[in-house]
Amino acid sequence: MCAAESVSGSNSGLISDAGPAAKVLPAATRAALLAALFFAVPAGAATHPFSFDDMIKLGKVADPQISADERVAYFAVSRARTDLNRWQSAIFMQVLPQPGQPLTPAMQITFPERGPKQEGQDFAPRLSPDGQRLAFLSTRDGSAPQLYVMTLGVGEARKLTTIPGGVAGLLWTPDSRALIIQARIVDGCPPYPAGEECNRHRTEAMEKNNVRARLIDRLMYRHWDDWYDGKRSHLLRVLLPEATAPLVPPLDLTPGEWDTPPLARGGSQPYAVSPDGKELAYVQNRDKDLAVSTNNDIWVIPLGRDFVPTGQPRNLTSKNLATDIAPRYSPDGHFLAYLAQKRPGFEGDKFELKVYDRVTGQNRSLTETFDNSVGEPVWGPESQRLFFVSTLKGRGTINVVEISGKTPVVELNTGDTHELLLHRAPDGISLYFLRGSLSHPPELYRLDLDASGKAPAPAAAMTHYNDALFAEVKLGQSSQLFAKSQDGLNLHSHVVTPPDFTPTKRYPAVVIIHGGPQGAWEDFWQWRWNAQVLAGAGYVVLMPNPRGSEGFGQKFVDQVSGDWGGKAYDDIMRCVDVLMAQPYVDKARVAAAGASYGGYMVNWIAGHSDRFAALISHAGVFDLRSMYGETEEIWFTRWEFGGDPWSSELYDKWSPSRFIDKFKTPTLVISNEHDFRVPVGQGMQMFTALQQRKVPSRMLIFPDENHWVLKPQNARLWYGVVLDWLHRYIGGAATDPKIIESVGTFAR
């Protein structure tokens, strides 16, 4: 039976929205297409170690949406278009298996690649509450992302916005009559709809201007990889027109001189509409100097007919000068849940789950005694409990807490969770989430809970999008390694060994240091520093969680601040000691690598240890004083180093630049010109120092990447250069020389 044939009502049918004649396809056509999609990589016995060429063929499953009857899931899948040096995505439909039924292949229901540019992307699907429509973002017409809506089972998608610069952040209203989106609007233009022509005209004028100069009179003039362009982020309401009716112009819900949501730390869903449609909650920061402020607040505004604001915004969290994000209304509308930090200016502070009582006006914390950060919450259907994801000792966990506050947080499962959804099942509650591991990218899973709130069985996979490819490759095995810190703490690391691992054989090893520093290595799939690619090349991979790592209590996180090269460095070295003591590791062939704070730590290691045969520093901080003047989020450097460079000695104390005279380990330096978090000058300074010290070194610079390397061809070069550097100094499999030969190099 074809997947679509088991679905009733308006959700049935494979939909092509590629052209005006799009219709539900015949069953035979659907069956053939399904086979082609699902079995694109022939299944068979594993034949070769996992490599970058395998990784780049994988599909990225994201944004799952579950129908109310839990029979269908919609999700986006991104796949690399190496010929275009970009990712391309489309929307898929998956019939969810019922008890006793086998899983059927997923079906593609949007086809952006058939647009005029042949390179469009459909992504961020959002299923309407009534289950009749699917909204998504698309670049299929060659423009920036715009809002599209399709009626399921009927025909093609309709484009609902033409806003210069594109839109983001789709949220349906509870009655399925409208969507709330975010868009960047030119400062000084009237609010939409009156300002629509002004915004378009001024945007076009800026684009046509041959002068590329920037006139700046405030900080936070750039962020991540974007320059401030004279626009601010606003929330807009888009009403759904009748099938043939003209479009209704968007309405600006948050006019003014503030970004809504803020440029940073708004959460993945920074706004919500109350169940009765009469109130909008959103995140906003009204501080004047955003470069030094983390004071994001939860604001609400009353809505009337057609979701038109009828009053003035009100700040619910004004007493908290730290971050408040991720508002979520309870199903009965009585409560508004959100996440909050306590310490202003500290982005690594613990997030607590709080609830605001809309009747009494009281705020209270539900997780004050829970010693790890809480992920974005999901309400139970009875409005009496909240579910959330948290990191615990290198693994993702699903947790539940009662809003009564009378019971502690309860862990429901341990298992590498990424994104959590919630749906009612006939006998209780079903939790849907993306689960991945160090051995597999995320897929959609379901965890069923009984009436008592317990999980009688392990979570079950609902999608197997990449299984056919993984049947063709050999993977390394992951395990955990533990060491003792100087002060007696248990230090955790993940270890991945090469395929066909033999304990009596001695392998080269790579130690990968995570960024943050407030972050963690979890048992979760990574696209940068992919452990399976490294293991497939013949390396034992160590991924330590030193001081600063999340999931081991907030005190453990706090201990890296003001001490960047202290306890964290010692923790890493103690984990390395345990690794080198393993009989299967050749301690003469060990390299250290990392990005962001991990790159900083590699630079620090260069001046403090000669135990590594090679180093790789990506986006690593070299000089903390100059970093302060180049980066954008100044609150970060202020907190981490106790003030500004002219008032704190910690910038000098913890700068790798002070120890240039100790540099002697061969080092690969990688930087990106669109990286505004750790600007390219940091890598250039590091490389200059290495060259002047006559240390074997090489620098790789991407002019079109930000803090990460995202484009497929660029990623291929990145892995090629990294693996080549490792091969030179610690052995392992040789990379294809054509990868490096294909780009211009400067050598003499």
Round the Cα radius of gyration to an integer and report it: 26 Å
Report, as a whole number of angstroms, the end-to-end distance. Answer: 64 Å
Percentage of β-strand residues: 25-35%
Category from helices, strands and their pairing:
alpha+beta
Mean pLDDT: 89
State the CATH architecture of the domain at 476-741.
3-Layer(aba) Sandwich
Low-confidence region ranges:
1-43
Strand count: 40
Q: Helix segment count?
A: 14
CATH-derived topology of the domain at 476-741: Rossmann fold
Shape summary: globular
**Residue share in helix:** 10-25%
Major β-sheet profile: 8 strands, mixed
CATH class of the domain at 476-741: Alpha Beta
CATH superfamily of the domain at 476-741: Alpha/Beta hydrolase fold, catalytic domain
Strand order of the largest sheet: 33-34-36-35-37-38-39-40
Helix and strand arrangement:
Layout (H helix, E strand, L loop, with lengths): L26 H12 L9 E2 L2 H4 L4 E7 L5 E10 L4 E10 L11 E2 L13 E6 L5 E6 L7 E6 L6 E2 L7 E6 L5 E9 L9 H13 L13 E2 L2 E2 L3 E9 L11 E2 L18 E3 L5 E6 L12 E6 L11 E2 L8 E6 L5 E6 L11 E6 L5 E3 L12 E2 L5 E8 L2 E8 L7 E5 L2 E9 L2 E10 L2 E10 L10 E2 L5 H4 L2 E2 L3 E7 L5 E7 L10 E7 L17 H6 L3 E6 L8 H5 L8 H14 L4 E11 L1 H10 L7 E5 L5 H7 L3 H7 L9 H4 L13 E6 L7 H13 L4 E6 L9 H19 L6 H5 L7
Parallel strand pairs: 1-32, 35-36, 35-37, 37-38, 38-39, 39-40
Antiparallel strand pairs: 2-3, 3-4, 4-5, 6-7, 7-8, 8-9, 10-11, 11-14, 12-13, 14-15, 16-17, 17-18, 18-19, 20-21, 21-22, 22-23, 24-25, 25-26, 26-27, 28-29, 29-30, 30-31, 33-34, 34-36
